[in-house]
Amino acid sequence: METGELIINRVEASGLITVNLEDFYPKGTIKVFDLKAYLFRGLIIREKDFREALKHTGWQQFENSNVAIICSADAIIPVWAYMLAATYLQPVAKNIVLGSEEKLIETLLLNNIDAMDAEVYKDKRVVIKGCGETPIPDSAYLKITARLLPYAKSIMYGEPCSTVPVFKKR
User: Fold this and answer.
1) Domain coordinates of the chain in residue numbers?
2) Mind spelling out the 3-state secondary structure of 57-108?
């Protein structure tokens, strides 16, 4: 390289916009509400006992939290039991999902992608960032692709210096 020659960052000059799915990761506290503690003899939910126990649960512990409702015991839980739990959680929790903590995170992540303003990517070349610090479910990559498809000029996967083409508008 000769003296005075400019070094050009081709990645920066390419006009690529990187979308990091970690930015859509749910914020806030995540808690699990386990129905196992409410089972009669570890097997079933008895309606009367369950209703009484719910009245005496410290619901303030779930305030402003994202809550996953599960039953960690091998028991058949009637649908109404989840519904009753929701009536107590809804006034205090930020979000409630039936399923594991992972399911809760995935649901909130997909909701955040749905809520994004995809219009800002109109006619842009977009790279969906690959590897990161936080594990991102595959469903989020599918969701962001479907969300951006009507807007983006092109969609790639990976890092700006090494991408896999996914879509290019014709």
Assistant:
1) 10-25+110-168, 30-93
2) CCHHHHCCCEEEEECCCCCCCCHHHHHHHHHHHCCCCCEEEECCHHHHHHHH
